[in-house]
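User: For documentation purposes, I need each entry recorded in a consistent format: the amino acid sequence on its own, followed directly by the corresponding structure tokens. There are two entries in this batch. Please keep commentary to a minimum and don't merge the entries.

Assistant: Recorded as requested. Entry 1:
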Amino acid sequence: MRRSRGREVKILSLAAFFIIALLSMVELPQFADGGAEFYAFDVGQGDAALFRFPDGSNMLVDAGPRKSAESLVAKLRRAGVRRIDILVATHPHEDHIGGMELVLRSFPVGKVWDSGYNHGSGVQRSMLALVRDLGIRYGRPRPGFKEEHGGATVEVIAPIAPISGAESDANNNSIVLLVSYGEVSFLMMGDMEEAGRRAVENFPAAAILKAAHHGSRNGTDRRLLEQTRPLTAILTYGSGNSYGHPHGEVRELLGEFGVKSYATADGDITIRIEGDTYRVSQERAR
């Protein structure tokens, strides 16, 4: 079935809202009508994305830099998060895992998925020590691994094998996830660059692409777009960043493929998914 663009969705009645507020201490599924939700948060120059699955479980993919940690925790709470079932560290750069210590201290966490790449940085050592001290399940899932969450599927696409000798090994060893619900799929690319993409023979089709490496020219190429054929791209970068993200080549390429792009520099992005449809909204940065 051809993936379609979003449509308006039914919202909870006012009465239902008050019932949920009164039962805020009870674990309830997020959506009575079977939908799911995705958030890409504005954490400045970094990545933090949340999936809320129909069974009420949550997966947080990266947690932004340390300086945005308090803001991220507040946003997660406003989104209704009381527990994080899967916390994914796509790779050990500070702009992706700097906020994880506060997240780990602020929410019960079911398990942590890690790329397994040893960067040796203080922020990585501190995060892993806290995971160990809290007794949280820890794993390094490999391609082909899948989990089901209330009708949504989370599948690991990469890293295929440890990559070394590239200009940025930590980026190229990023965990890449395909998250599917109904006819809508997300491809979460971490910060994977060219060397990592070459190791993947075929990327799956996906309606929504979380572009790699903050819209950098080394994160998205023609082959990737030809294989994935996204309708929507999410670019995660900070306003006025010193790296020049997003690069003009990527913007032009997305335009050539007719991909509608949204940037976290413009505010938090929410995507509501129901079956074969989804709707994108954005809370503009102030």
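Entry 2:
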Amino acid sequence: MDEIEKKLAIIRNHMREDGCDTLHLRGSDWFSWITAGESNAVLLISETGIADIVIDQETATILSNAIEAPRITQEWRIPHMTVEITPWQEPYKTRHGRIFSDRPRHNEHRMPQHWYQSRYCLMPEEIIRYQVLGQETASAMREALDLALPSWSEHMLAGALADALMKRGIEPGLILAGGQERMRAFRHPVPTHSQLGLRTMLVTCARRGGLYANCTRMHAWSELTQEEKEKRDKVVMLEKVALDASRPGIQLGAIFDSLAHAYTAIGEKDAINAHHQGGITGYLSREVIAQSQSPCILKAGMALAWNPTLSGMKIEDTVLITPTGTQRITQDTQ
């Protein structure tokens, strides 16, 4: 069975178990998952796109309009699915029975939350795509930082990263670029015309084939101060606590609690409240954000992005959970 056939079987099994006659998928996250990496996104910031997918026990149909359907039929090769053109003036088509959707409208029911867990564990084909995405995202980060100068503005650095990502066919879902002053003041330094200075923090949530590679890099053009070295060592230690605990069978909330204890141990008890610590990633940059009571149990094949942070210092990479631990995929191999 190929990837799409396996995923359709998973969805149809959920539908039978939960009494769903028809499933209407609208989100870009679910679209990319069920089509093995195609994208219905045109407006990148939108949660939905130019095509939906309707699934029942016999058929799977891609619904799009006359603007987009020719491109879909000519450029995509999606087995087990047909393309149906719907008028752009009337995108909703009435269907009968009990209808579920990831983003329900009209008489539809919201898709049960436990269905989402089906996509958290990645298939071998997805893992291969993810590993390549992670490596290329890290390479793009290095390219942008190698070009950057202290005299650059934050906008210039963000633009260099966007260029490096798009050249690799990767969509910049998010880019943060903070210079020496603003990266100390804000956990999320949205780029401005401010000059970088001798320090910068560069952050991206980079998407290709629906999958997100989340990555943060710190860069300095002069030797770190003793205070900066201590903060660096602390966030590295915090990340190690999270990664060491990220094993199959461990509850996500338990890892968050381990991080909370680690923050307290280094004298930064309140810092954990200044920014979320990451969690499960995949077809959303944050599929599940870790909290103390997060019940999700980790399994091999899931992806995580932990991002411990202190004022002016942050660390983040995307990792895959293996049977024995974690594999960092946003690692520049050059």
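Summary note for entry 2:
The mean pLDDT is 95.
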